[in-house]
Every structure is written in C-alpha cells, then in structure tokens.
Amino acid sequence: MLVSTSFVVALGYGMVAPALPIFARSFDVGVTAVSLIASAFAVVRLAFGPLSGRLVNQLGESRVFACGLVVVAASSAACAFVTTYWELLICRAIGGAGSTLFTVSAASLLIRLAPPSMRGRAAGAWATAFLLGTVAGPLVGGALVTVGLRTPFVAYAGLLLLAVVISRGVLDERAGRRSDPVPPTHGVVTFPAAWRQPAFRAALTSNFVHGWIVYGVQVTLVPLYIVEVLARPPSWSGSALTLSAAGTALTLVLGGRMADERGRTVSVRTGLTIIVVGTLGLASTTALPAFLGASLLVGVGTGLTYPATNATVGDVLSTRSPAGGHGGALAGFQMVGDIGAIVGPLLAGLAADAVGYAAAFALTATVAALSLGCWQRTRETRPLTPA
Q1: Rounded to whole angstroms, how far apart are CA atoms 351 and 356?
Q2: Alpha carbon of 383 to those of 113, 253, 263, 379: distances in Å?
Q3: DSSP secondary-structure letter at 80?
Q4: CA 231 vs CA 21, 225, 235, 244, 286: distances in Å
Q5: Which has the closest alpha carbon to 10: 249, 216, 238?
Q6: pLDDT tens for residues 44-92?
Q7: Domain assignment of residue 58, given as a range
Q8: Taking each helix axis from N to C terminus, what angle separates 198-212 and 264-284, rounded to the nearest 10 degrees?
Q9: Nearest CA to 344 among 332, 355, 352?
Q10: CA–CA separation, 35 vs 62, rounded Å?
Q11: Are residues 121 and 197 in the same domain?
C-alpha cells in the first residue's frame, strides 16, 4: 500500500508539472514569479519538517499519513479554482506542508513494518514507485492540459482522495497497533540523539548529495549545459534526464538487494564512487555521447546509494527505539535532503556563472567525494541474520 501510494503521489506531482508554469504565467507574471511558486513549495516543506516529526510521534503514522494526503489533495483542488497569482502561490505552498506529513510518516512506517533483513529492498521498492510515477506523470499531465490548465489539479486531488480511502483501511488493518501514537513509556528518538550515531551522520551526507544532484543540479545545470555549451536543441536535455532516471530505475532494486545481502556501506560506497566518476565525466566532456553516458552513470550511482542510505537510517533508529518514536529524527533526515535540493542549484549556479559549468560539476563531485569519505569511516549497521 505504501509503495502504491508513493506511485500515485509522484504521478500526480508529475501531472501538474506541465500545467503549473503555464498556469502561473496566465496571470501575467514574470519568470521569477513563476519560479517562486516552486521555491515556496520547497521552503514550506522544509519549514514544516520539525512539526511533522512531532505529529508522527503524538498522533501515529497512519493518521498523519492520511492527513498529509488530504492536505495535498485540498491544496491541489484549491489551485484549480484560484483567480489570482497570489492565491495560486499560497495554495501551492500549503501543499508543501502536506508533502512533509506524508513523507515523514511513510518513512516511519517503512522502518517499522519492513523486517531488518529486507529494509534495503523495501526502500528500493518505495523509491522505484516514486520514480516511475514521476516519469509517467508528465505524460498524463500533458494529455490533461489539452482539456484545460486546471484539469490536472482536479485529477491529482481526486487520485489522492482515493488513495486516502484505500490506504487508511489497509494500513489500520495491517499495521495495527504499530501505527498508534508512541506510548510515553517508550523512547522517542530525537534528531540530536540520532546525530550522535556516526552511521546516521554519514546517511545525512549522502541524503544531502541526493537532494543536491537529483532535485538540483540535474534539473538546472544539465539542460543549460546541453543548450549553451554543447549547442544542442533543448530536446536533448530531456534525453539526458531520461537516461539518468533510467539508470536510477534499473539499479534501485539492485541497490536494495545489495544493501540487504552485502551490507549498507558496500552499496553506498559503490554508488557514491560511481556518482563521483559520472559527475567528473559531466565536467570534463564536450561531446554529447560522452555527456549522456556520464548522466547514465550518475543515475546508476544514485540508484545504488538511495536504498542503502534509508536502510541505514532504519537500522539506527529501530535499534534505539524498536517501538517507534522516529518522527523527529526522520524529519531532520528529510530536511537535510531538502536543503541539498535548495543549496545545490544555488552554489552550483554561482560556480557556473563565476568560473564555468565544468567548475559547477566539479563542485558537485567534490561534495559527493566528501560524503564518500564519511562513509569510508562508518561501520556496518545491517543486523546479522542466518544464512
């Protein structure tokens, strides 16, 4: 149910992507104002992180999970009926709060429901569903836009409400007491407490890299590099991003299995090494085939890194508090990834303006290499199981 809901959420997010910038421009605003809508969603999502962690601990994962979906659905439906730019900005920003509630509660449920020996594969399945939804969403949204710019928002709201009805019953039945609020007698893992664990700190670095690359540099620098440096049509930007996404999709399941069978650190170190090599390849080539190959490598490395990073977080938190109470630590973990997605494009963009695109990609490779250095000193967290 969690994996299916992840697909629906990502599908809807991708559905509104083709319509949102055009819809915003219809209110006679500039490009900066259009970009502000995306930034507002990310900023509210980041600011709401600490509260979402406390709500998960106090109300239980299942309730917060459903509440997050309802908030995003209401936000999307409201966007379909706005009459001014500022109404659209506010409604879209509110959706960031619901997104945080959904993400933190779902991550907590995954930790509690997935057996330690399958934690990597569970994280891989979750991420794969989200990636596939992100890829399929714009195709569906592009078709809905022909009906009207407001249609994708209504369709997204309907999908989410349907997901709430189905998932609420399934999660209550399957999760049982494990989705109830954490009893006062049980330990609650705060972010500072989790920070004291070296493996958790290492996981924060690779999650920061994930946000920096996937939601930042690839979306901003790669399209510009292809058009301005390689002098290719914008359509090739889509090819580069698709290749990277394909590399991630092909290796997420493999990365999860490797994390469960060979260890979390092996999978993350391998993935980060590939990311460093691929990003340096982006920085050093002026040939389109080589650039596309480097994009594929970055995607492969991301697919190997992500499941093991999340499995490591699950190992650390479940060891300290098997009964739950992970909301605060998970909220902080998510916020670090969001910060990477915000800071990454900014710093890389400044480097590109000041020195050039090669320096921007080299900076990204350096950040990934620093994370790799942290993981080199991290002990394995995977629980020992019988052969």
Answers
A1: 6
A2: 16, 20, 9, 12
A3: T
A4: 25, 8, 11, 20, 10
A5: 249
A6: 888 888 888 889 888 888 889 999 999 999 999 999 999 999 999 999 9
A7: 2-172
A8: 30
A9: 352
A10: 33
A11: no
CA distance 72 to 94: 8
The C-alpha atoms of residue 246 and residue 258 are separated, in whole angstroms, by 19
- 139 and 216 co-located in one domain: no
| Domain co-membership, 61 together with 99 | yes
Q: What angle do CA 338, 83, 23 make, to 5 degrees?
A: 55
Q: Is residue 161 part of a domain?
A: yes
Note whether 109 and 175 are within 8 A (CB).
yes
Residue 68 and residue 197 in one domain: no
Residue 317 to residue 333: CA distance in whole angstroms: 11
Question: Do 125 and 249 have their domain in common?
Answer: no
Contacts of 35 (CB under 8 A, 6+ apart): none
pLDDT of residue 186: 52
3-state DSSP assignment of residue 125? helix
Task: Let me know: does 212 contact 338? Beta carbons within 8 Å.
Answer: no
202, 381 Cβ separation under 8 angstroms: no
Axis crossing angle, helix 327-354 with helix 31-47, rounded to the nearest 10:
150
Residue where a domain stops, chosen among 111, 139, 172: 172
Q: Residue 65 in contact with residue 171, Cβ under 8 Å? A: yes
306 in any annotated domain: yes
Mean pLDDT of all residues in the chain?
85
Rg of the Cα atoms in the chain: 20
Tell me the C-alpha distance between 246 and 226, whole Å: 19
Helices 264-284/235-261 angle, 10° precision: 160
Cα–Cα distance between 57 and 189 in angstroms, integer? 10
Is the pTM value of this prediction over 0.85?
no
Give the separation between CA 67 and CA 259, rounded to whole angstroms.
32
333-343 mean pLDDT: 87
Q: Which residue among 145, 172, 199 closes a domain?
A: 172
| Total domains present in the chain | 2
Instruction: Tell whether 204 and 159 lie within a shared domain.
Output: no
The DSSP secondary-structure symbol of 105 reads: H
Does 105 reside within a domain? yes
